[in-house]
Write a structure and sequence with these properties.
The complex is a heterodimer.
Chain A: E1 4-7, E2 10-13, E3 19-25, E4 33-38, E5 45-49, E6 53-54, E7 62-67, E8 70-75, E9 85-90, E10 96-97, E11 101-105
Parallel strand pairs in A: 2-11
Antiparallel strand pairs in A: 1-3, 3-8, 4-5, 4-9, 5-6, 7-8, 9-10, 9-11
Chain B: E1 3-7, E2 11-12, E3 18-25, E4 34-41, E5 48-53, E6 59-61, E7 69-74, E8 79-84, E9 93-103, E10 108-115, E11 119-123
Parallel strand pairs in B: 2-11
Antiparallel strand pairs in B: 1-3, 3-8, 4-5, 4-9, 5-6, 7-8, 9-10, 9-11
The chains are: A mainly beta, B mainly beta.
Chain lengths: 106, 125
């Protein structure tokens, strides 16, 4: 089984800050990774696919990078609507989510 | 646009079978480009993929749940369904259905791009 280790588990930041969330895979997964945003009481929304491709309609302040075992999601300038929980998802071998990162307002 | 809607009992007794249905509207479930999946999220916790199904009936299950999971499809109703047997309190969760991207020619599984709103299922006597 491929395990996804996501860090940090929580993060406090201010509007306008640049933040980075990391996911590490227990073995190489090429670029078979996506990032999702989930707000309370809502279904997850895909932001990034294939590690670095921006989903249509998602603001360009979101970006993804990485390949193999280490991946990052960066939000270049936090907006009030970005405070949410973020998950990575690998689909190289079955599908496994990271544990999530809760992004809170400082 | 495509929408997915989960339905089913919100309360299931321990040791019984949880049954949910996802109705797809605004598009056909019989597309070669998609599987259709189930994902769950216990209260306050993370997401777990349960399994996915193709319109032909081919299935792809999470190995950790495979022994208890059955996913089926009814193309005439544009629906797919989840059955999870021998449930315990640990199966209490919000259950989501979602469209699971798939490349027919390569057999490559991508991830989920469109989700239902989710339905809460509580396991309790």
């Amino acid at each position: 089984d491929i395990q996804m280790t996501q860090s940090p588990s929580s993060l406090s930041a201010s509007v306008g800050d640049r933040v980075t969330i990391t996911c590490r895979a227990s073995q190489g997964i090429r670029n078979d990774l996506g990032w999702y945003q989930q707000k309370p009481g809502k279904a997850p929304k895909r932001l990034i696919y294939a590690a670095s491709s921006l989903q249509s309609g998602v603001p360009s302040r979101f970006s993804g990078s990485g390949s193999g075992t280490e991946f990052t999601l960066t939000i270049s300038s936090l907006q009030p609507e970005d405070f949410a929980t973020y998950y990575c998802l690998q689909h190289n071998s079955y599908l496994t989510f990271g544990q999530g990162t809760k992004l809170e307002i400082k | 646009q495509l929408q997915l809607q989960e339905s089913g009992p919100g309360l299931v007794k321990p040791s019984e079978t949880l049954s949910l249905t996802c109705t797809v509207s605004g598009g056909s479930i019989s597309s070669s480009s998609y599987y259709w999946g189930w994902i769950r999220q216990p209260p306050g916790k993370g997401l777990e993929w349960i399994g996915s199904i193709y319109y032909s009936g081919s299935t792809y299950y999470n190995p950790s749940l495979k022994s208890r999971v059955t996913i089926s499809v009814d193309t005439s109703k544009n629906q797919f369904s989840l059955k999870l047997s021998s449930v315990t309190a640990a199966d209490t969760a919000v259950y989501y259905c979602a469209r699971h991207l798939y490349d027919f020619w390569s057999g490559y599984f991508d991830a989920f791009d469109i989700w239902g709103q989710g339905t809460m299922v509580t396991v309790s006597s």
